[in-house]
Design brief:
CATH superfamily: Winged helix-like DNA-binding domain superfamily/Winged helix DNA-binding domain
Strand content: 5-15%
CATH topology: Arc Repressor Mutant, subunit A
Shape: globular
Amino acid sequence: MAKPRGSSERSASAAGRLAILSIGLCNCSALRKATRRVSQLYDDALAAYGIKVTQRSILEHIADAGAPSVSELANAMAMDRSAMTRNLQPLEREGWVKALINPNDRRSRYISLTAAGQAKLVETFDAWKTAQAGFERTFGQKAAADLRAALGQIASDKFVEAYQTHITREPTAHK
């Protein structure tokens, strides 16, 4: 004989259905899933060079900025400082970047690209360009440009400020 379902079982079941339904509607989940997929494609293109697209991107940011502080680099890549510090460690081990102590504030570090780091960017450029072209041929050049523009907007401080004005601090209770 089956047990009658209690209110807690019904609530758990309803919560499970809501969670399943929201997966397809969640902007964050969709962005993260797409990011993982695209990263896999670029990582495959760069695998022969012993570098991941995330690492190459950090090298590009450093090359573009000159010798940014860890905080400046983290802000430019929309990361927190501790995550950036962890991501820099393998790049330092490989000799692609070098940490320089700020003489005015010994707690602050600047990150510079080494000759080996610059060489790694040059060495991997064609593989990155091939991945980039493959993405644009598959997704469409205009769609890819529109996507980069939309993602740039989402990654901006202006978007975060606007987002903060549109959310409530306390979640609404659902009954």
